[in-house]
Amino acid sequence: MKSASSDTEHIPEDPPTVSSSKTRAVGLPAELLGMIFQNFVRKDAKKHALDDENDAEEDTDEDEEPASILQAARVLSHVCSSWRQAAIGTSALWKTIKISLLTKDGVLEHFCSTVFPRVKGYPCTIHIRDVKFIGKSTHGIHPIHRCKILPSMDVLQLRIGFRMEGEYDDPELLKFLGSIEGTIRSILLDSGGVDDGRVGTLWSLAKVLSPFSHIRKVTMWFADATIEACTETCPSVEELELMNMEGTLALADLLDMFPNLRFLRFIENGDRYWNVDGYRSRPFVHSKLRKMCLKSVDMVGWTATGTLTASGTFPSLTHLNVEDDAQLDRFLADPAHRRITCLVVDTTTYSSASEYLSAQG
Question: Where is this region: Disordered (predicted)?
Answer without folding.
Answer: 1-24
